[in-house]
Amino acid sequence: CRSDSFRYGHLSSIDLVHWRSHPDALMPDDLDGGIFSGGASVDDDGTCYYIGTRPNPEGVGHNGDWYIYIQEVDLENWCLKGDYKLVWNGAMRKAEWPEGPHLYKKDGWYYILHAEGGTGPAHAVCVARSKEIYGPYEGNLMNPIITHRHLGKDYPIRYVGHADLIEDTEGNWYAVMLASRPCEWHTNLGRETFLA
Question: Could you tell me which residues are beta bridge partners of residue 144?
Fold first, then answer.
């Protein structure tokens, strides 16, 4: 990804040692914000979808007033295909920065797992689900499902967000996420990776 214009490139490898770089895979469209903070998911029928975030198309009403959207990916031409669909704008009322979404399908449900609250004391992980890929999505009543925002400024791990789910070969599920460990009010190591 090139940060100057939020273009997504891609690499491929057959052995995870030797990598081949390919041209930019996804390009910004004519909407402000272009392509930002997303990922891809392949459905049961082989259709690939991009899930990302963009500014509220009706106008940004507050800091971080963004939407999560889903759009089909043309795998032959490596570009977005058709119209995007706005599917979610965060679990909390007037959520700030719903971002970094991941799309999963499990037992007939589509799940969006995403960060919200910005990278700071309000950072959290939230989830929504739907029977249809384009929604409507319903938030989990217990959102946020992972956060440290309520533990206070003296808790050793803070700013938890940006989780991804992993299932091991035994059927156990884990979340890998970002968080910080401040030392004397500074996060010298920045955001670190945590496993729960």
Answer: none
In whole angstroms, how far apart are CA 144 and each of 36, 74, 115, 140, 177?
22, 33, 9, 8, 14
How high does pLDDT run on average in the chain? 86
Give strand pairing partners of 179: 192
Cα separation, 179 vs 160, in Å, equals 4
> Distance between CA 118 and CA 121 in Å, rounded?
8
pTM: 0.84
* pLDDT 10s digits, 119-131: 888 899 999 999 9
Per the CB < 8 A criterion, the answer to whether 173 and 196 are in contact is no
Please list, in sequence order, all residues whose beta carbon lies within 8 angstroms of the beta carbon of residue 85, skipping any fewer than 6 positions away: 69, 70, 71, 134, 135
Distance CA 79, CA 24 (A): 9
Longest dimension (CA), the chain: 51
Residue pair 96/118 in contact (Cβ under 8 Å)? The answer is yes
Whole-angstrom distance, CA of residue 98 vs CA of residue 125: 9
Tell me phi and psi for residue 84, to 5 degrees. -80, 155
Whole-number Å distance between alpha carbons of 120 and 176: 18
Q: For residue 23, what are the CA distances in angstroms to 27, 71, 82, 107, 133?
A: 10, 20, 21, 35, 28
SS3 per residue for 17-45: CCCEEEEEEECCCCCCCCCEEEEEEECCC
